[in-house]
Amino acid sequence: MALDLTEIRQQITQIDRNLLKLLSERHRLAFDVVRSKEVTQKALRDVEREQQLLQELVRFAENENYQLEPQYITQIFQKIIEDSVLTQQVYLQKKLNEQRERDIHIAFLGKRGSYSHLAARNYATRYQEQLIEISCSSFEQIFEKVQSGEADYGVLPLENTTSGAINEVYDLLQHTELSLVGELAYPIKHCVLVNGQEDLSQIDTLYSHPQVIQQCSQFIRELDRVHIEYCESSSHAMQLVSSLNKPNIAALGNEDGGKLYGLTVLKSGIANQENNITRFIVIAKNPVVVSPQIHTKTLLLMTTSQQAGSLVDALLVFKKHNINMTKLESRPIYGKPWEEMFYLEVEANINNPDTQAAFEELKQYSNFLKVLGCYPSEIVKPAKV
User: Fold this and answer.
1) Are 155 and 282 a contacting pair, CB within 8 Å?
2) 26 appears as a binding residue in the annotation
3) pLDDT for 141-155, tens place per residue?
4) What residues does the record give for site: Essential for prephenate dehydratase activity (predicted)?
5) Would you say residue 384 lies in a domain?
């Protein structure tokens, strides 16, 4: 006799609760692990160990005939490992940087519900219990809020896997004395948001931020005669569409933000790329000390001479010192036509003597060199099996 659907759901609910209990227990063990590594000074991540763990779990499931796909197992446990790594990382960083307060003010672009707002919450919850949100209408205003002390931190998008670098943010970094103190990646899931259950063919006007419009360009091209209205942020677009309450308009944004404004999803999955991720940086007035046990990045601003091969000579310094460069971005120098400055991101801790030696040597090949920030990376690349 087949079980009643209600009974099946009750069983599923109980299993889900048991899983949550086990996940909580595993999460707590991460603190025991980091306390042990704190004594031994071992690196937080052991990718080889993570790979062995994933392989053992796949083999165990096969031997026990659990009928679970290897990819399903690895995806779940990669996320669990990521949580463990970030938990341990936060533990070390909070001990090194005791100036962090219980309540922090974070400035972000747009109103509540914007991607920057959601990223700010994501960052703050790892360190604090209370977050005081400061909505800004421009990237420049975020810098101003942090510089004045009104905000402890500012969260800014730096690059996106679909639309590339956010040049305005890079340009603002040229002229600031603020420091980069963190980074995080936030998945971007664009959808069409409306006031009711309108048909997509009725929509003739779309509201959103230029970056969102760019990231959904292929979907927009498939629509007939749609007018684009650019907004300060996706959250501004959602608020506007909600207040206008017309059947022919829609906002492009995220589902969670749409709920804050009473909007419903008309169509999801509209971004050009399925894996659409924005990388955010966190700025503050003062730099942070980063534990040598943590995966660390440093962002540099550099100019070189206009002689042939000068940039290549500078980059070879990193190869010589076995430092991995993860980003090279060029931007024009205002007032100097055809001259450019370079943003270099490297996987290195400026407190490491080898890194300091490399930076000293780099000065020989640059006209100008500035460290914009040394920060822990909260982007945990999954160990691959």
Assistant:
1) yes
2) yes
3) 999 999 999 999 999
4) 278
5) no
